[in-house]
Amino acid sequence: MQRLSDRTAGFTDSVIRRMTRISDEYGAVNLSQGFPDFDPPQAILDRLAEVARQGPHQYSITWGAQNFREALAEKQSRLMGRNIDPNAEIVVTCGGTEAMMAAMMTVVNPGDKVIVFSPFYENYGADAILSGAQPVYVPLVPPEYGFDPDVLEAAFQQRPKALILCNPSNPCGKVFTRAELQIIADLAEKYDAYVITDEVYEHIVYEPYEHIYFASLPRMFERTLSTSSLSKTYSITGWRLGYVIAPPNIIDGTRKVHDFLTVGAAAPLQEAVVPGLRFGEEYYRNLQQTYTQKRALFLRGLRDIGLPHTEPQGAYYVMVDVSAFGYQSDLAFCEDLARRVGVGAVPGSSFFHEPENRYIRLHFAKREETLNEALNRLEHIYRKLRA
Ligand code: GLN
């Protein structure tokens, strides 16, 4: 028989999602794949129950249901400081994952270069291969995760088609400052590149840090494909609702990619989440407070156990330095952690382009009981895992 496509040979399955399966296998507290173990807001669930009876149960318009796009445009216009046209500047996708893939397919020709900051959310590697892009990595250097503007400019000198910007950043928790965003904006303009953002943690930012939408910088809307998702904001990761926002000429292309990839996001779920999109400021303030408390609890716990870790400025991930345990492979470490300590984590190497082996990623988007249970188990880590 003929060989299957070469396309999939260049990457493995997702290590993040594999770690969820490994955690489940060992009955570990799963702090690997980032998703909450608490319920979405009641108003959304109540609407879902109504929608189950009333519909819609058939396709929505391929680029998203009208009332979903209108509610989203209203919310994002407020946040991004410009009028987003619900009828020309939005495509609703199956999660942030499809949004990023559709954005890449809209912009990139096979062989084009794309700048990716490293560490990066692991999907971007596979997205690059699937769209034929060649990643050019620019390090975000631990422990501060800053970048060197000269290194970034050298990457732009390779004439990339686009730069991928995850802000707030998964996995390192960096929230880019206005000055950093302006450096990126100036280079994108100077070298005529697009910017594809991933802003799924836009509402999970810790004081005093502040999320600034890249597309809100002067002249940047024209060259930015802003992608995001409702997963983290409304605790509905299984609903797979995401979107791309961009100017009409770009959205025309994204609509086509999206239409033939998936036809559309689930119509009943788009309908059910509309009350969420219409929540006022208070909801987002509460969300931020909730995560601020979880962050405090979890970081305090890690400190008490004596595990060196990052202090995220945004998102809900912590990079823990496990070099003291003397493992050769962080994947082997994570397997032992799940099996012998009972906590699921993601090996840091799946986020770094550089040969990095000293970090694991844990997340704290969990109920307090769950976080306390994980911390109780982690108390035994030095006894159980020291090589
Ligand atoms: N963003 C989440 C993480 O990094 C997972 C998202 C996903 O698996 N689609 O863990």
From TrEMBL:
PROSITE patterns: AA_TRANSFER_CLASS_1. InterPro entries: Aminotransferase_I/II_large, Kynurenine-oxoglutarate_AT, NHTrfase_class1_PyrdxlP-BS, PyrdxlP-dep_Trfase, PyrdxlP-dep_Trfase_major, PyrdxlP-dep_Trfase_small. Its EC number is 2.6.1.-. Keywords: Aminotransferase, Pyridoxal phosphate, Transferase. Residues 29-378 form the Aminotransferase class I/classII large domain. One of its GO terms (molecular function) is pyridoxal phosphate binding. The keyword Transferase applies. Its cofactor is pyridoxal 5'-phosphate. Pfam families: Aminotran_1_2. Belongs to the class-I pyridoxal-phosphate-dependent aminotransferase family. This is Aminotransferase. It comes from Candidatus Ventrousia excrementavium.
